[in-house]
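ok so dumb question maybe but i'm new to this and my supervisor (M.) told me to 'just get the structure for Sodium:calcium antiporter' and walked off. so i did the thing. is this what she meant?? sequence i used:
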Amino acid sequence: MTYILFCIGLVALFLGGEYLVRGASNIARHFNLSPMVIGLTIVGFGTSAPELLVSVQAALAGQPAIAIGNVLGSNIANILLILGTSAVIAALMIPLRKVWRDLGIMIVATAALWVMLLDGVISRVDGVILLLGLAVFMVMAFVLGKEEPDLDAAPPAKMSISIAQTLGGLVVLVIGARLLVDSATIIAQSFGVSEAVIALTVVAVGTSLPELATSVIAAFRKQTEIAVGNVIGSNIFNILSILGITALITPIPADPRFASTDMPWVAGTAVVLVLFAVLLKGIPRLAGVALLAVYAGYVGLMMA
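this is what came out, is it supposed to look like this??
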């Protein structure tokens, strides 16, 4: 039965991702927002919903390793696994002039989290700081994300249909992720895998599957700005929103291993994404293969 639920969750993720990308693209056109901004905000926040649910539930249940490990592992998976897979499907373009601020915010948020983890707890004050950073990011994204309408393009679907597609896709994504995380955790526990490793790998990948489904579908539809924006936005939301909200509800004790072992991976993958944007203006297919190989090595180290 566990394996059946796993398969049902996987199907739900990709169906939800298809409708989310379609609806979000139409919303962007209605408001003359670039697909990158929609990927950074609506899609990025929506696909981070599973991480939020898991982290809050874990913190309240006295499982801080899962609350923090879920976010760190998801950010690593977003860049190595999700962008790697998407780039293999279709080489990704990263328009630096549109995302340099967002990449900068991602780097600053990552550095701030690393500092917060050094004292062994993400406090309520830390949570307030993270949420203030989220507010600044959202204002910047929408104020600076307007673009001229394309008068030659076909008119988008009605706003009501676009909103229904987006919300429906998000609901299906969250349900699918929940089924996958629960079933995959049971499977991992049956093999004697520790809580921290489950959080950094099984739970992190499970809650990142909405991002994977959304970015892969966007890559197939040649909407690479949404694929890239989804990952950058999700990484920002994971730190500023998810850990901010969770810490505001209850301070989160942090195992020393997160600052010493896992944050270097989180920071390193963020820097690699910035280097791709600056030096290559995107992620070619061969680089996508390399990202996937690095992720396989990371999971191997975690499981060793």
